[in-house]
Every structure is written in C-alpha cells, then in structure tokens.
Write a structure and sequence with these properties.
Elements: H1 6-9, H2 13-34, H3 36-45, H4 66-71, E1 85-90, E2 100-104, H5 105-121, E3 129-132, H6 140-152, E4 155-157, H7 164-174, E5 178-181, H8 183-196, E6 206-210, H9 216-226, E7 229-236, E8 241-247, E9 254-256, E10 261-266, E11 280-286, E12 297-303, E13 305-306, E14 318-319, E15 324-325, E16 330-332, E17 335-337, H10 339-349, E18 353-364, E19 367-376, H11 378-381, H12 385-403, E20 408-412, E21 427-429
Parallel strand pairs: 3-4, 3-5, 5-6, 6-7, 18-21, 19-20
Antiparallel strand pairs: 1-2, 7-8, 8-9, 9-14, 10-11, 11-12, 12-15, 13-14, 16-17, 18-19
Helix pairs in contact: 2-3, 5-6, 7-8, 8-9, 10-12
Bound molecules: 5'-O-[hydroxy(phenylacetyl)phosphoryl]adenosine.
The site of 5'-O-[hydroxy(phenylacetyl)phosphoryl]adenosine has 22 residues, from α6, β7, β8 and β12.
Organism: Candidatus Avimonoglobus intestinipullorum
Family: Belongs to the phenylacetyl-CoA ligase family.
GO molecular function: nucleotide binding; phenylacetate-CoA ligase activity
C-alpha cells in the first residue's frame, strides 16, 4: 500500500525525536510569549522556555484541560492575532460549555496532510472517489476528511450525514470507492444497503471511521455489510480534528502523526508519566500548530502506545483504540464499566440480536440499576416468547461473567431504537438528573 510521505512517516526514531525537540522548543517559546495562560502557568511552575533542553523536559510543563478551553473561551488561547485565523471549529460535546478551536492557513494545510496520510494508508489515491458522510459544519469530521481527500487529489462527494437512502443511491450511481463517516453511521448505512438490496451495486473498497469508540466485532460487521476494509481514525477538535492518528493496512493500532503531536500516557489520578506500553490517559502536545497550540492537553481518552515498528514500514508510534474515556466510564454499584464492554458482549451473541442498543442507568432505593434495551433480529421476532426469553437470559449471563454485574436485558422490536447519523448516543444516565 503506498505511503503518502514515506520520508516523514518512516523516519528513524532518533530523527523523529530530533524533529520533535526542535518543534517543541519553538512551540513552548511561542506560547510563553503569546498566550497569557501558558505564561502564568509556566511561571507558577518555575519553568522557562529555555528549560526545555530534551524531550523528557516536557514533563516539567503543566497540563492543559478542557476546562481551560472553557475558561479562556473563545479566543484567549490563540497564539496568533485573530486576523491570521481562517477557520473555527467547535467540539460536539454534549455536556458543558461549547469549546472552539482556531486554525491558521498553515494549520488547515497540515491537517489536510494528516488526513491525506490516513486516506493513503487505507489504500486511497487520486484515482478514488471519496464520499464524506461525516456531518459538515462545526464538527471536524466533514471538513477534516474533505480537506484530506482534496489534498490527495481524489474526487470528493460531500454528502454530509443524513438522508441515508439518497446517500446510498449516490454511492451506487457515482461509484464511491471510499467512505468516511462514524462507525455507527456505517452500521446504519450497511443495514439500509441490505434493505435496499443494492450491495452488489457498491464499488466501495475501504472505509475510514472514527469519532467514537467501536469494537473489533463491529469492524467485522461493517466490513461484511459494505464489502470493504474498515480503518479506524482518531482525533479531537482541541488538538486538530480527525487524523491525529490513523490506521494502516495492518489494522493494528493507529499511527500518531508524531511530527505534529507528541503523545504521552499518564496516570489519570496522579498525572505521572507512565512507562512505555502502560495503559492510561492520553495526553497530547501540539508541536506544529500555529493558531491554538496546546501543551500537554489531557484528552481523557484511555489507551496505550506501542513503539514497535509496524509491518507497514511506518515508524510513528501506534495508539491502541481508546477503550473509553475517564469521563464516560460508568460506575455501577461500584463496578467500572465502559459502554464498549457491553457492546462487545452484545456483538458476540450473534444473529439473534442487532448491534442497536441503549444503556439506561438509574438509581432506585439508593441502588444503581442497569437496563439494556437491545433490538432483536427479524428472525427472533417471529419466534415464540420462550426463545426471546432464552436469548435475554443468555445476554444477562454473559454480562455477569464479563462485567461481574447484573443487568436487566430487554429485547425490543427491530427498528425501535433511534438510529444515529453522527456519534451514537448509547447511554442514558438518569442518576445525573437526580
Ligand atoms: O470526534 C474528531 C473526529 C472526527 C475523529 C471524525 C475521527 C473522525 P470531537 O468531536 O472533538 O472530535 O471528539 C473527540 O471523540 O476525545 C474521543 O473520546 C472520541 N474519538 C474520536 N475518535 C475516536 C476513535 C472528533 N477512533 C473525542 N475511537 C475523542 C474512539 C474516538 N474514540
């Protein structure tokens, strides 16, 4: 599979580190001079830009959090005059105050480069037709994937999300070869393709899906439904958008664009940097960004980093699929549960249930309750009540052995749970309203 920038994506580790140190020193000096918050924090920690002499000195710098982006909203973290900012994007967060990110022209160009790397890693080239079914607008998915596909020289079809049957007609008639959208929307598209009976008219070969956690079983289902290779892509608005890291043909972790971002894994409780290979909270420092650079930004995403050389030839470190976030982890009767663990159980049950589910957590008489609504398959719907009850019992038992937690499982009719065109809303936690 061709590599978009082999001279950069396959650098020796010593060269990567040399480049990172130069860029880090440049960045720390800029934020110290141009952003009051960073200067005040560094002064309080007794660190000056000259103290960054080697990469491990990064650990001397204070963290930045999402709350900082809220507190300094909208423009106070920008490191350039406002007139140099040519684009604003905003986070899709559903809780708290909106945060914004600002990009200079160079920032947009570098972002497009990262996304072009990702598309090439999934096998795309200027011969391809890329259908972007991420939402366009403040969410970074649509415009991010769009910029990368244009930079690669592919033909872009900017359908945005929604209007699912029309999307599929376009896909068939225009011969889209690469699809970009959220994994939950890819599942929905796959389901609709089946209903429309048009799988044999698709020309798709690859899909690039991210913006939310998804499991290996979900990957298999999407690959099967659309007849493609499905690749993961990670990113966040604060740091850039999609393309901070991306999966190659090996499908074995996402290569971080280390020429633009330095990743660290920390203990979320103590903030200590953890040894190579440890599982913990992912932290990024942007070392190429002009508009809104961030130093040691705590993503809240939980994963690990793998520095072993990848079979694809790229040397950039690979991050494991985030297993969840420190802040979407549910604590139910004292047990830590990530929605992705529940999804894994449901997907392993097989053909009797569909991957459409909703988790409802509540508190009754001071005790947490966990209810899971799962759509059953059409076939199971036409079976008798006894078979439905047997499948429910099977899921309850699997959840108990995987999570160590009792749950109430309700099999509901096909199509009764609302579909998502963007990020899926899988969890309703009613305890927060109390
Ligand atoms: O979701 C950017 C994006 C768009 C990434 C399209 C990939 C594709 P935000 O809306 O700011 O940005 O949300 C960022 O989404 O901190 C993760 O918790 C989660 N996330 C993003 N990609 C993945 C992924 C975009 N591949 C937050 N796997 C991040 C798991 C992901 N979680």
């Amino acid at each position: 599979m061709p590599i978009y920038q082999p001279e950069i994506e396959c650098m020796e580790r010593s060269e990567i580190e040399k480049l990172q140190l130069e860029r880090l020193q440049w960045q720390v000096k800029r934020v110290y001079e141009n952003v009051a918050m960073f200067r005040e924090r560094m002064d309080a920690a007794g660190v000056k830009p000259e103290d960054i002499k080697e990469l491990k000195d990064l650990a001397k710098l204070p963290f930045t959090t999402k709350q900082d982006l809220r507190d300094y909203y909208p423009y106070e973290l920008f490191a350039v005059p406002k007139k140099e900012i040519v684009r604003i994007q905003a986070s899709s967060g559903t809780t708290g105050r909106q945060i914004v990110a600002g990009y200079t022209r160079n920032d947009l160009d570098n972002w497009a480069t990262c996304m072009a790397r990702q598309l090439a890693a999934a096998g795309a080239s200027d011969e391809d037709i890329v259908q972007v079914s991420y939402g366009y607008g403040l969410f970074t998915g649509g415009l991010g994937a769009h910029g990368g596909a244009e930079k690669l020289g592919a033909m872009v079809i900017p359908t945005s999300s929604g209007n699912t049957e029309r999307q599929i007609r376009f896909m068939c008639e225009l011969g889209s070869t690469v699809l970009c959208c959220t994994p939950s929307y890819a599942m929905y598209l796959g389901e609709t393709v089946r209903e429309m009976g048009v799988k044999d008219q698709l020309k798709l070969k690859a899909g690039i899906f991210g913006a939310e956690p998804w499991t290996e079983d979900m990957r298999k289902q999407i690959e099967e439904a659309l007849g493609i290779r499905a690749h993961d892509v990670y990113g966040l608005t604060e740091i850039m958008g999609p393309g901070v890291s991306y999966e190659c043909a090996e499908q074995a972790g996402m290569h971080v664009c280390e020429d633009f971002f330095i990743p660290e894994i920390i203990d979320p409780d103590t903030g200590a940097v953890l040894p190579e290979g440890s599982f913990g909270e992912l932290v990024f420092t942007t070392i190429g960004k002009e508009g809104m650079p961030l130093i040691r930004y705590r993503t809240r995403d939980l994963c690990s980093l793998n520095y072993e050389k990848c079979a694809c030839g790229r040397t950039y470190v690979r991050m494991k699929k985030p297993a969840g976030r420190t802040d979407d982890m549910l604590i139910i009767r004292g047990v830590n549960v990530f929605p992705s663990q529940i999804e894994e159980v449901l997907l392993k049950i097989g053909g009797d249930v569909t991957p459409n589910y909703q988790i409802v957590v509540d508190r009754v008489n001071n005790t947490d309750t966990l209810d899971i609504n799962v759509e059953m398959s059409e076939a199971l719907l036409s079976d008798d009540m006894k078979s439905v009850a047997a499948v429910e019992r099977k899921i309850v038992a699997q959840l108990r052995s995987t999570l160590g937690l009792g749950a109430n499982v309700h099999l509901v009719s096909p199509k009764s749970i609302a579909r998502s065109e963007g990020k899926a809303k899988r969890v309703i936690d009613n305890r927060k309203l109390i």
